Amino acid sequence: MFRRTHRVLRPIDPTTRDSGLSVIEVMVAMMVFAVMSVGIAYGIANTLQLTQTSRGRETAVALASQDIDAMRQTAAATTAGIFKVVSKSGSSNRKTLGGVTYEIDRSVTWVQSDGASGACGTSNGKLAYKSVVATVSWPNARGGTSSTTMTSAIAPSDAVTDPGYGTVIVSAVNASGAPFAGVGISLTPISGSGAVAPGTAPSPTDSQGCSYAVNVAPGDYTVTATIAGGIDTDQEQPSQQTPITVTAGASAPVPFVYDRASQLTLRYASSYGATLPTNMPTVLSSTVGGLDTVTPWDTTSQTLVVTSASEQSLPVFPFASGYTAYAGPYSNSPNATVNCLSPNPAAWTTPDAAGAAGALPPLITTESGQPSDGAVMMGVAKVSDVKGRYITAVSSSNPGAGDPGCAAGMTMKFPVSSSDTATIALPFGTWTISSGKTFGSTSRNEIATKAANVTPVTPGRVNQKTALFVIDYDNTLTLDPRGQTS
Which of 175, 254, 425, 435 is geometrically suited to a Cys-Cys bond with 269, CB 3.0 to 4.6 A? Predict the structure, then answer.
């Protein structure tokens, strides 16, 4: 009886016992559903992304078209309207629509009649039309950036320049090569060339660094660029280019490299309290601008006293490469008969007895519109028994050992000495030291008169004339940069 009851409660028929779903079957079903759900979800998300991208692209195309149309209307508004069609960066030209921010970057270049193109115009061809490229970018749904570009040509409403006249195209870039806006431009006719002052003065350079003088009578002109504190690569304030020849039916491109000056303060032999030569020039060397001769003080004066205690200041072009400053008329001309290498410490390449060779002076860094400063290395000596006398130093044609020489020659003149012993600073080199009762006099050779009267303060030596020497140094003083650090 009990066995029969057990069979009823727990039937031994497998089909009866397994009539429900097993756990494995449920798990498989759930997995299939999950895979299908992921696929469906991905499809939905992808569709949404494509829709968003498509909507963003449609908006971007509309914005690009709108921007170009606005420029077309600007060009058509007036005869000079074409000059107001200029580039604009996307960072300063943004619009937000539907919660999405779009950047509209507009690039504008002139295309000239000869096919040349450039931001301002680069050739002698007539200004024909402007090529406008509008690029709109926006963040996409994938976390990146999408963009679309539209290009169009915009012609001026009328001829830029009337027949029989020419156009002057001015472009201005700064030390970094970027467009320099706000530079004033003027044209001055050169007498006898047929040139006539323009009826309308050119506008200051625009955001692309461009300015134009239209309907300019044929002839020769001086074109001047100026802005407060501006300077060009030739250290000129303002900057001028002349002669610029204007031809009827053509353009005359005038490029300027111009920037706000860096006010450079120079310290000459600042540790020695020395008197500097009144007539001494300074040479600034840069890898971009080459050699520039500058005069921080009035080098024509016969009474001016300039000492190493006073700092000399002058405006300079802010070359990114900076400057190296040399006291005296340094020249690295390949013509050995006119160069002057002595003032450059790095030109003293032969090691001295201690094994030291000359080194390049410290680099002076400059920045647009900002002050800068630098040291100028010089040799220093004391000259005794010169009260009431004028000292004059003349570079020797027979340089001392290790001196690369100065074929061009140097003459350094000092004001009258108020004390018996004068401390003087000179460019590096080999010198004949003389004195006299007038400015620039060489009536008395100080070393020949009494060698003990001349003593180098910085590394150097007195080369006294004597028959015992194989080489005759003609009673000179060598001021040697090797081993000198300031």
Answer: 425
